[in-house]
Design goal:
Length: 157
């Protein structure tokens, strides 16, 4: 089972848009990241989950479109920035299908830390907007497979 963890794409400032929709730069970052990954591996998560915040929903929909996913993009509970990562760790432990989860800081780093290290505060992964962290679950637990960030495609990164 593969778990694709994505921090929502760069959003507009709250002063520009109180709902904080994905910015033009955020859209470009999703196209870069999803497109690059599609050149090498075609992720096919069966489920696409997001927190319900507009920027997470838009990010989830754009990744689903870029990867030609057939499944429904679904808002679910317990993916908000300050949600308890134990809830999703428990859900993932009983799942067997690949999933894409679009969420927020600090929840995603805590979830990844819990899955990889067994505790929430180690944070072995630095998430970036519109970046993809792929973990794989097997009988021995979770391992990091890869991380792709849009900043990899900028000349001055």
């Amino acid at each position: 089972m593969r778990i694709y963890l994505v921090q929502h794409a760069l959003a507009l400032d709250e002063a520009q848009d109180p709902k904080r929709a994905v910015s033009t730069q955020g859209c470009e970052d999703i196209v870069r990241t999803a497109g690059f990954l599609s050149l090498f591996v075609q992720p096919q998560p069966k489920f696409v989950f997001h927190s319900g915040k507009l920027r997470a929903k838009q990010t989830a929909e754009m990744f689903a479109e870029a990867w030609h996913l057939k499944g429904e993009v679904m808002q679910v509970d317990d993916l908000s920035p300050n949600a308890d990562p134990q809830v999703w760790a428990a859900k993932l432990n009983v799942m067997s299908d690949d999933v894409l989860i679009v969420g927020h800081l600090p929840h995603l780093p805590k979830l990844a830390s819990l899955l990889l290290c067994g505790e929430v505060d180690r944070q072995p992964i630095r998430f970036q907007n519109a970046g993809v962290v792929c973990l794989e679950k097997d009988d021995d637990g979770y391992q990091l497979v890869f991380q792709i960030n849009p900043t990899m495609f900028y000349e001055d990164s």
